[in-house]
Write a structure and sequence with these properties.
The protein has helices at residues 5-37, 42-57, 60-81, 91-117, 120-128, 133-163, 175-186, 189-217, 222-226. The protein is mainly α and 227 residues long. Helix 6 (133-163) packs antiparallel against helix 8 (189-217). The longest helix is centred in the first third of the chain and has 33 residues, at 5-37.
Length: 227
């Protein structure tokens, strides 16, 4: 690694931090928009429908550039209006907001489908047993929703994890940027590209193990019920 190990590990930490933070934003936005699409308000349903349709219809890289540069443009306009110093948008924060906004559209459909997959009769039965609304959500709705949503959530998480590589184009010194810089400095771009690929493979392998554990956790009793 020729003394570049620390630089690459720092880039790897930035990448995994970016992915996790983006996941949180995407999940929160997905929950809100899923509820919006299931709302009785036509205007709210329309807004959420436009959001998911546009985001899923435009390539991620194009959206990243539009959101990142659009955010910087908006900040510049605000500083110009107040005659303040120019503020540079932090690439890490911009990356979180961009990835979260993009993949929030995919999580919206995941959560909407999971909510609709839960049987209303099951919820009514819980109410008949004397559960209040919080207990129905905690002990019935949420576990069943997770059972239906987990495959889509797992797929979206792995896509977000790999999509962090695109954020390096916005100036973030992540794993891809670090290995690219080191590869150019040492004239060994292929070797350090393989290092980056190995890190991503490690991240996805750990993620798959965790996701398999979650799948087993939320599928408790399902196998017995089927048998």
């Amino acid at each position: 690694m020729q003394g570049y190990s620390l630089l690459i590990f720092q880039g790897a930490l930035i990448t995994i931090g970016l992915a996790i933070a983006s996941l949180v934003v995407a999940v929160l936005l997905g929950v809100v928009c899923a509820l919006g699409k299931l709302s009785h308000l036509k205007s709210l349903r329309l807004i959420c429908q436009i959001y998911t349709s546009v985001i899923r219809g435009v390539p991620d890289l194009v959206l990243m550039m539009l959101i990142f540069f659009g955010l910087q443009f908006a900040v510049n306009n605000i500083t110009d209006f107040f005659n303040a110093d120019i503020i540079e948008v932090n690439p890490f924060v911009a990356g979180i907001l961009t990835l979260g906004f993009i993949y929030g559209a995919y999580f919206t459909e995941t959560f909407r489908g999971a909510y609709q997959a839960v049987s209303k009769n099951t919820l009514n039965a819980a109410v008949a047993l004397g559960f209040n609304q919080m207990q129905v959500f905690r002990y019935v709705m949420f576990p069943l929703m997770m059972r239906f949503a987990l495959p889509g959530m797992a797929n979206n998480w792995l896509i977000i994890l790999k999509a962090t590589a695109l954020v390096s184009l916005l100036g973030l010194f992540d794993l891809v940027k670090a290995t690219k810089t080191v590869g150019e400095a040492t004239y060994q771009p292929l070797f350090f590209a393989l290092i980056a690929a190995a890190f991503y493979l490690l991240f996805t392998t750990i993620s798959i193990l965790v996701l398999n554990w979650l799948d087993r956790r939320y599928s408790v009793g399902l196998t017995k019920a089927k048998s």
